[in-house]
């Protein structure tokens, strides 16, 4: 009888341990799926997580014009010596909210003109936990000025009837605050200030602010930054929010002025954002902004010694693996 009782106790203990491990596994999966936990936080968990979900699916959502070269980005990401991931390229007009949910990562580029309905689609995708990378001047133009959100439309009629920012929109009487999602406001493209360039031109130095950040891990603490006649980048202004992180800045060496306003000599270049901030912990960091589409760092118009292939790799790894 003593032996039977002992075996029963061991069986109960084993069952409880198994249930506990299953609950822990489910919790880890949900936390990773919602971007609350990056899979790299636990050794070996990325392999387990993506073995269950399958290889990460990536979408490059594009419009008619704007900064970006989606075909080049796809070639770079598809390279088996690099990421070995082949993204889908889809026109934004073809996409519905359900299409975005099929992907682990959505990259928006070459989409300067965008309706508020489509801006809302991407904002809601990110707010629901999707991984979103916004680049360059995407969404800087609307099809109609009535799609922009005006200052006097936020409940204070004494405010002037002026556009808040191209990234502050409205759709069906709902405010769509892409600017707050990115913690940034679009100002202009760099060439709107300095004009076109005729050859590769040194603009300044790219400075990662935390070399341990996965988006810039292993990158030089200062990179000479060039543009060419075929490339450009967006000048943006930071909106101070508790959940945003400046990952990399561009030091241009002199004050940038546009439209009579000064924007300083240091510009945001890579900024990430989280869905929440609890006792100092960033919860669900799933949004990133790149002032220049990352594939431009490998553009054929740049000499080989000016190209930085790791920028694209770090974008993918930082967003999905952390």
Compressed to H and E, one letter per element, the order equals: HHEHEHEHEEEHEHEEEEEEEEH
Query: Approximately what portion of the residues adopt beta-strand conformation?
Result: 25-35%
Write the CATH architecture name: 3-Layer(aba) Sandwich
Given the helix and strand composition, which structural class is it? alpha/beta
Distance between the termini: 54 Å
CATH topology description: Rossmann fold
CATH superfamily: Class I glutamine amidotransferase (GATase) domain
So what's the CATH class? Alpha Beta
Poorly predicted runs of 5 or more residues: 276-282
User: What percentage of residues falls in helices of 4 or more residues?
Assistant: 25-40%
Report the biggest beta sheet as strand number plus sense, adding barrel if it closes. Answer: 9 strands, mixed
Strand order of the largest sheet: 2-1-3-4-15-14-11-8-9
What is the β-strand count?
15
Radius of gyration, taken over Cα atoms and rounded to an integer in Å = 22 Å
CA-based shape? globular
**Tally of helical segments:** 8
Residue-averaged pLDDT, rounded?
88
Domains (count): 1
Task: State the main characteristics.
alpha/beta, Rossmann fold, single chain, nine-stranded mixed sheet, 8 helices
Describe this structure in words.
The chain has 322 residues and is of the alpha/beta class. The chain has eight helices and 15 strands. Strand 5 and strand 6 (174-177) form a beta hairpin. Residues 276-282 have low confidence and may be disordered.
């Amino acid at each position: 009888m003593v032996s039977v009782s002992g075996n029963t106790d061991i069986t109960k203990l084993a069952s409880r341990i198994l249930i506990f491990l299953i609950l822990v596994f489910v919790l880890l999966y949900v936390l990773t799926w919602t971007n609350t936990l990056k899979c790299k936080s636990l050794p070996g968990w990325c392999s387990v997580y993506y073995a269950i979900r399958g290889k990460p699916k990536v979408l490059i959502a594009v419009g008619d014009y704007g900064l970006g070269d989606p075909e080049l980005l796809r070639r770079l990401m598809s390279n088996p010596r690099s990421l070995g991931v082949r993204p889908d390229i889809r026109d934004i007009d073809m996409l519905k909210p359900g299409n975005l949910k099929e992907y682990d990562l959505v990259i928006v580029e070459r989409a300067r003109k965008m309706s508020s309905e489509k801006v809302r689609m991407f904002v809601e995708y990110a707010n629901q936990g999707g991984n979103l990378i916004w680049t360059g001047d995407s969404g800087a133009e609307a099809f109609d000025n009535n799609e922009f959100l005006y200052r006097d439309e936020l409940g204070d009629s004494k405010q002037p009837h002026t556009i808040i920012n191209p990234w502050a929109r409205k759709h069906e009487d709902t405010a769509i605050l892409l600017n707050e999602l990115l913690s940034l406001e679009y100002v202009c493209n760099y060439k709107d200030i300095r004009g076109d360039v005729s050859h590769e031109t040194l603009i300044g130095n790219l400075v990662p602010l935390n070399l341990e950040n996965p988006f810039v891990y292993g990158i030089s603490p200062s990179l000479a930054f060039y543009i060419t006649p075929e490339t450009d980048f967006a000048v943006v202004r930071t909106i101070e929010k508790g959940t945003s992180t400046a990952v990399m800045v561009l030091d241009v060496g002199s004050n940038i002025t546009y439209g009579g306003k000064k924007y300083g000599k240091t510009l945001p270049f890579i900024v990430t954002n989280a869905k929440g901030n609890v006792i100092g912990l960033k919860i669900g960091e799933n949004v990133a902004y790149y002032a220049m589409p990352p594939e431009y760092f490998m553009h054929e118009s740049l000499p080989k010694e000016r190209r930085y292939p790791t920028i694209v790799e770090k974008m993918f790894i930082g967003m999905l693996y952390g």
